[in-house]
Write a structure and sequence with these properties.
Elements lengths: L2 H17 L2 H10 L4 E2 H5 L6 H13 L3 E6 L2 E6 L5 H35 L1
Antiparallel strand pairs: 1-3, 2-3
Helix pairs in contact: 1-4
GO molecular function: DNA-binding transcription factor activity
Protein name: Transcriptional regulator, ArsR family
């Protein structure tokens, strides 16, 4: 495996790990409406702030959000194009499976024609 593939795999692993948790997906859904402070993002969740901050850290590590500090307030925003690597990977998988399906369909068609010829 090449170094670039390993890097891409690590990036995808971090991205999908970030998306694996329902709390983090809810945070992303909220940020899709626009930037928000950490305090505002944490309000709907019944958890201690340190636990919530771990979710934000995981989203940052996955490349899905950015946080900036304005005075004492941290603002979170979605990163533009953050889901592009996942989308590209899923598209490659779709094409691969469509190709396999087409080959299977052609093979079965050949088998069916051979079966008809034998009659």
């Amino acid at each position: 495996m090449s170094l670039s593939n390993m890097t891409n795999n690590q990036e995808l692993d971090a991205l999908f790990a970030s998306l694996a948790d329902p709390t983090r997906r809810a945070i992303l859904a909220r940020l899709a409406e626009g930037p928000a402070t950490v305090t505002d993002l944490a309000k709907p969740f019944a958890m201690a702030l340190p636990s919530f901050l771990q979710h934000l850290r995981r989203l940052e590590e996955g490349g899905l959000i950015e946080t900036t500090k304005q005075g004492r307030v941290r603002i979170c925003t979605l990163r533009a194009g953050a889901l592009a690597p996942a989308r590209a990977w899923m598209e490659a998988q779709r094409l691969l499976w469509e190709e396999r399906h087409d080959r299977l369909e052609a093979y079965l068609s050949t088998l069916m024609q051979g079966s008809d010829d034998a009659r």
